[in-house]
Amino acid sequence: MSEISLTIDGEQVKVPEGTTVLSAARKLGIEIPTLCYHPDLTRHGACRVCEVEDVAHNRSLASCVTPVIEGMEISTRSRRARKARRRNVSLLLANHPNDCLGCDRSGTCELQEIAHDLSIRTREIEKYEGETRDITPDKTGPALKREPNKCILCGRCVRICEEVQGVSALQFSNRGFDSIVTTAFDLPQSEINCANCGQCATVCPVGAIVEKNEIYHVWQALEADDKHVVVQTAPSIQATLGEEFGMEPGTVVTGKMVTALRKLGFDRVFSTEFTADLTIMEEGYEFLARLEGNEKLPHITSCCPGWVKFAEHNYPDLLNHLSSAKSPQQMFSALAKSYYPDLTGIKPEKIYTVSIMPCTAKKFEKDRAGINGGPLKDTDAVLTTRELALMIKEIGIDLNHLPEDEYDELLGKSTGAGTIFGTTGGVTEAAVRTVKEKLTGEPLERLELGFVGVQDKEIEIGDRTIKVAIVSGLGNTGELLKDVREGTSEYDFIEVMACPHGCVGGGGQPLPVDKEKKDRRAEGLGSIDQAKTIRKSHENPMIKKVYEDYLEEPLSRRAHRLLHTEYRRRPKN
Q1: Is the Cβ–Cβ distance between 44 and 84 less than 8 Å?
Q2: Is the dihedral angle over the CA atoms 473, 111, 187, 138 positive or is it negative?
Q3: Where are the beta strands (DSSP E) in 396-532?
Q4: Exposed, middle or buried: residue 63 (CB in 10 Å: 0-12, 13-18, 19+)?
Q5: Domains of the chain
Q6: What is the pLDDT of residues 215-274, one digit of tens each?
């Protein structure tokens, strides 16, 4: 590919043909503000916040979509360029609610940050004041809420839902001033083919799509004298929470996080990694049974609730391929309301279970039909990583300077296999570690499965070659599941994670996020796995104790009642 030479702000730069002006400027360390642009999505050029001046042709250009031309002379700092940006941002602000202090994205809002950096003042916005949108927020969904009045029509949510996730639950509607982003047929969030994955919330630059906040309910429980509040933390949180406190992505903060949770007032702090190990036992034995009977193959994982809901809408004919094992979150909560009360003497109705998750779909999962192991609701509240950070900040805790503490052991001891659940390929590797050793007595070498798209691997287990595949991002499931549907799939085991990179890229993780950050988060989790003395689920002594004391054996009658579930067909709206 040939190179193009151009000048930006008086500096010469050479870039490959097809490079945008925005990318060329960034190569020189020149930052141009953007809103509709996102590195993981197609170019859009809608917001015009990234305008620059083409000096030779006396015109303004949207730098995010304009390819470089040989000999181009660009100014990002001219009066014309600065005036255009200020005008376009002011126009956006004039039709945007003035409630920054009460907005969920205050402090992480890209529009707010750009307005501050451009020194835009109220008098500039007032020049463009007029009729504004007045659309009722949609709070009907189980995990996400949409506030169309805050939408700046950047299209990021539409593009990620269509291009990356393949769901297309969101679309542009109407024209001109009446343009909005809405659902298909303008249906409420609760009635659409939405996976609740929250990827739309991760790319929304403002507060137009956010998770449904449950902080108030958790504070109520913590302050209630008659509640025994236990918390579980998902594996990936320990490598992402630090970002909310200025630490580098991938920084492991496990011990500090445990200390913070105790300071918040939780009675017991447990790790979801424990029931990730339990999930491997149940799902691993289920996979073994399928292998021996050569039926319902490929076995498809079910620990990701975004993927499960997507399958219920779009692949109802394949639901019998999904493992019936509940997710680690739901297994933990089922035991917290059954096994844990037996051990402690605390009545189940007094126990309030909170889970800290990277995933907005977990808010949906806790209330889905057939998910509870008994008459009580198993998971009472789900907080995202972002919500936990807000609670910690609310009481003035500085995570950076906390001492390190350890999880409570009763339901907290875990293995490296449980840790790697937090990134793509981790479930597969954890399951196969156990399956191979149970069948052959031989340990499994590290699979080194990748993070993005579709990856596969062949594993020798005894006299059989097992072929596994991992998929991250729902949009990557199409071809793979087409083969399963047609009965031509070559795989024995398929892991599906709704979010790109798996849980480290979940819809509830710190913002903003990009591929590099997700890679570093995954590396942080890998370092925890490597440091663990026990790295296989079936070797976890507390898992052995749970089976000896309570569950008897994997796939037992009690295990099925508490730890397994069913799925149902949902309309494809």
Answers
A1: no
A2: positive
A3: 453-461, 464-472, 493-497
A4: buried
A5: 1-131 (3.10.20.740), 144-211 (3.30.70.20), 215-563 (3.40.50.1780)
A6: 999 999 999 999 999 999 998 999 999 999 999 999 999 999 999 999 999 999 999 988
